[in-house]
Design brief:
By secondary structure, the chain is mainly alpha-helical. It has one domain. The protein has helices spanning 3-13, 24-35, 40-50, 54-63. The longest helix has 12 residues, at 24-35. It starts with a helix and ends in a 6-residue tail after the last helix.
């Protein structure tokens, strides 16, 4: 993920960062709206930003059929 992409993602999910785990669903929606899908790099950046385990991010992505990876 480039610096520009990371910056755009941080801007898109910035308001959800203080929510941590509670912000996971809206952050994933924002990322998918930005990129059209959720790549491994995007999932990793979201996990880091929200301070949740990457496995939790993958679990949510796999559980909800509306997320594309």
């Amino acid at each position: 993920m480039t610096v520009v992409e990371t910056s755009a993602l941080q801007t898109a999910i910035g308001s959800y960062i203080p929510l941590r785990r509670s912000g996971l669903l809206p952050a994933l929606h924002a990322a998918q709206k930005l990129y059209g899908w959720i790549s491994e790099d995007t999932a990793t950046e979201i996990a880091k930003a929200l301070r949740v385990p990457l496995a939790d991010v993958h679990g949510v992505i796999e559980f909800y059929s509306l997320f594309y990876n």
